[in-house]
Amino acid sequence: MEQLKGACIIGQSGGPTSVINASAYGVIRTALDSPSITAVYGAANGIKGVLSGKLYDMSKEDPAELELLLHTPSSELGSCRYKIKDPDIDDTDYRRILEVFQKFNVRYFFYNGGNDSMDTCNKISRYMKKVGYDCRVMGVPKTIDNDLFGTDHCPGFGSAAKYIATSCAEVYKDARVYDTGMITVIEVMGRHAGWLAGSAALAGLIGCGPDLVYLPEVDFDMDKFLVDVTSIYDREGKCIVVVSEGIHYADGTFVSEAKVASSDGFGHAQLGGLAARLANIIKEKTGSKVRGIELSLLQRCGAHLASKCDVEESFLAGKTAVETAVNGGSGYMVGFERLEEDGGYTCKTKLIPLADVANYEKKVPLEWINAEKNGVTKDFAAYVLPLIQGEMEIPKDMGLPRFARLNKILAE
Amino acid sequence: MEQLKGACIIGQSGGPTSVINASAYGVIRTALDSPSITAVYGAANGIKGVLSGKLYDMSKEDPAELELLLHTPSSELGSCRYKIKDPDIDDTDYRRILEVFQKFNVRYFFYNGGNDSMDTCNKISRYMKKVGYDCRVMGVPKTIDNDLFGTDHCPGFGSAAKYIATSCAEVYKDARVYDTGMITVIEVMGRHAGWLAGSAALAGLIGCGPDLVYLPEVDFDMDKFLVDVTSIYDREGKCIVVVSEGIHYADGTFVSEAKVASSDGFGHAQLGGLAARLANIIKEKTGSKVRGIELSLLQRCGAHLASKCDVEESFLAGKTAVETAVNGGSGYMVGFERLEEDGGYTCKTKLIPLADVANYEKKVPLEWINAEKNGVTKDFAAYVLPLIQGEMEIPKDMGLPRFARLNKILAE
Question: What is the ipTM of this complex?
Answer without folding.
Answer: 0.96
